[in-house]
Amino acid sequence: MSTVSFKNISKIFDDGTLAVTAFDLDIADGELMVLVGPSGCGKTTLLRMLAGLETVSSGELLIDGRVVNPLPPQQRDIAMVFQNYALYPHMTVRRNLEFPLRMMKLGKDERRQRVSEVAGLLGLTALLERKPRELSGGQRQRVAMGRAIVREPKVFLMDEPLSNLDARLRLQIRGEIAALQRRMRTTTLYVTHDQVEAMTLGDRVAVIDQGRLQQVDEPQNLYAHPANIFVARFIGSPGMNIFRTELHPTEDRGLAIDWGRQRLPLHAGQAHALRKYLGKTLYAGLRPEAIHYPDAPDVEATIVVKIESIEALGHESLLYFGYEGRMEETRGDLSPDNNMVSPLMVARLAGTPDAGAGESLRLGLALKQLYFFDAEGSAIC
Amino acid sequence: MTRAAWLFAAPALLGLLLFVALPFVLAFVLAFTNLRLGSPLPLEFVGLEQFRRIFSDPAFLRALLNNAVFALVVVPVQTLLALGLALLLNRRLKGLALFRTLFFMPVVFPLSLVSVVWVLIFAPGANGMMNAFLETVTLGAWQPRDFLHDPVLALPAIMLTSVWQGVGFQMVIILAGLQAIPGELYEAAAIDGASRWRRFWHVTLPQLRNTLIFVVLVTTILAFRLFDQVQIMTQGGPRNATTTAMYEAVQAAFARQQVAKGAAITVVLFLIVLLVTVLQRRLVRQEREIA
Fold first, then answer.
1. Which has more confidence, A327 or B274?
2. What is the pLDDT of residue A326?
3. Whole-angstrom Cα distance, residue A73 to residue B184?
4. pLDDT, tens digit, for every residue of A47-71?
5. Which residues of chain B are within 8 Å of residue A103 when distances are taken between CB atoms?
6. A198, exposed or middle or buried, with CB in 10 Å at 0-12, 13-18, 19+?
7. Count of other CB atoms within 10 angstroms of residue B280
8. At A34, which helix (H) or strand (E)?
9. Cβ atoms of residues B147 and B157 within 8 Å
């Protein structure tokens, strides 16, 4: 039963690196909050500050309304699952699970009971007398989980707990973590770089880039209403296609945008919101899911693309193609939007298209699903 | 193996044979003879006679006792001191390299040089460095003593020299052990609620176990081979108070030409060291089995 608040938190490392800037986030009691972002974005630093393993440069960290900045880790009543598990190699599984309880100076009987409860819950009962090195990766991961939950802490911290597992195990344990957290209802802060993990696990997801919070929302909202280009491109697999474009008035007093040398007409609602951007830099986005074969029902415009490569997954294919307007726009190396626009466009198509790399293919666009961003990359509509 | 391989290995093998294997075998053989350089008596096989003699020699028994006392004191003191130094140096501090160098420096000095320096430190009379130091810290209560000629203080004086000289080496080994402990374990323990002391007890010590066993056994073996300091600082005196098995062996073989007796003593020393080594392997193997 705990809440966690980051209030205007910043972290500057001794070498001057600015890891986190003015970070605000409130985590509700019992919530599973996922921090997601590319490597080096500061998410792990945030977690370690909450754990007490890193000092806070400025701002306040609260657990249950109490400022914990000056408290060492052992006084914060938190538990953490490390990326490499950090099991005590010289102790058996039982001793590993018992360790936090012994540090709490619990009696022998209570320790025994709690350990057997947790071992039962996680399917570790048969492994209690083994040493960590005799366990598989998945089993070690469970012991690490068990060591975290056995003491019933106020907050769970998980630092990329699945990254050392193979894909199948990752999927399975991801489900187990979700079920466990729903059952225990312990406030949890979960750090990952994998947006799929974030989307499937989080009650809410906080997207972080370059030490700043980009957006925090429920997974579906992040996907449907990204606050900026970074979130749009980061969330979704693959992320949103972004291209630079310009608005043009049409004969029927609507608006159209450029797609290479082609014009795509906008809907009235879109045009209304965008009218004030006439003549200004504009970025448009289209999810790979909004690009179809030309005969699909909600297709409103078709384009011809030159296929760069195809990743066939069986039930669907990811088709990569160059955006024809891109080359002339980004010629001259460092135009400011180089990291805003997608280097390659991608479409998610059912089955396997009847064309190969280097060939041309006609595709349909669902223009209703266009997103627009201003010159700074913030969402317009 | 090809002929070329043997050819390449030959110089090293020859060296090993000449300087390790041969003396070793010779010592074993000679220990059962009456060989004495310059003696007119013919070389005879005398069985265990030499061993009977050395074990009834009060000087040799005193030497073994001195070795044992030396090991019992120096091994724990030096190991704890090395552990303490290693813990102090195993952190990010300014000038750390300087301290590491300082503590390691005595290891680099030849033992004979170290011994000479400490003879000066232990100089008798009020002007001797150690006497003057003790007088200062006891506010004048200390009466100057002649450490190296004092039957009670001579052995402790040699112990002090040895600890000072040897602690840096152990420190470096323990430091390497400390640095091999993953930082995450400390973080996990802190989060699990362990205080600094408990982290030391539950993470550092168990993780250092093998390092410490190694260090203790090497120091024990070195304690039984104690020679240089004795030779230079006290020559075994006063009245055998600082004699050691190795010193007795050298005295017998090279001062009195009793080569067979010297050989017998080295055989006994070899057996002691062997025992210590076997003990170490037992301890370490136990650890592996549990692990």
1. B274
2. 47
3. 13
4. 999 999 999 999 999 999 999 999 9
5. 192-194, 198
6. buried
7. 17
8. strand A32-36
9. yes
pLDDT tens digits along B131-153: 888 888 888 788 888 888 888 88
For the ranges A26-35, A298-307, B34-43, the lowest mean pLDDT is seen at B34-43
CATH of the domain at A339: 2.40.50.140
Complex confidence, ipTM: 0.83
Q: How many structural domains is chain B composed of?
A: 1
On whether both A209 and A80 belong to a single domain, the answer is yes
Select from B193, B203, B290 the Cβ nearest to the Cβ of A74.
Answer: B193
d(CA A240, CA B129): 80
> What global pTM score does this model have?
0.80
B37 in a structural domain: no
Q: How many CA atoms lie within 13 A of B205 on its CB side?
A: 9
- Please name the helix (run of DSSP H) or strand (run of DSSP E) that holds residue A214, with its range, or none: strand A212-217
A147–B192 C-beta distance less than 8 A: yes
Range of the domain at B206: 58-290
- How far apart, in whole angstroms, are the C-alpha atoms of residue A232 and residue B223? 70
Structural element, H or E, at residue A205: strand A204-209
Q: Which residues contact A162 (CB under 8 A, 6 or more apart)?
A: A141, A170, A173, A174, A177, A192, A194, A197
What residues have CB less than 8 Å from A271, skipping those under 6 apart?
A254, A255
Residue A334 has pLDDT above 70, yes or no: no
DSSP secondary structure string, A93-131?
HHHHHHHHHHHTT--HHHHHHHHHHHHHHHT-GGGTTS-
Cβ atoms of residues B115 and B234 within 8 Å:
no
Radius of gyration of chain B (CA): 23
**A79 contacts on B by Cβ (under 8 Å):** 191-192
CB B147 within 8 A of CB B124: yes
Write down how long chain A is. Answer: 381
B194 closest CB neighbour out of A53, A87, A103: A103
Q: Which residue did the predictor score with more confidence, B47 or B161? A: B161
Question: Is B171 part of a structural domain of the chain?
Answer: yes
Note whether B192 contacts A: Cβ–Cβ < 8 A: yes
Residue A333's domain comprises 241-373
Residue A72 has its nearest CB partner, among B188, B190, B203, at B190
Structure tokens at B31: 């220990």
Whether residues A189 and A78 fall in one domain = yes
* Own/partner pairs, A213-218, CB within 8 angstroms, 24+ separation: A213/A23, A213/A24, A213/A25, A214/A37, A216/A25
Rounded average pLDDT over B197-226: 90
Closest residue in chain A to residue B196, using alpha carbons only: A74
Containing H/E element for A80? strand A78-81
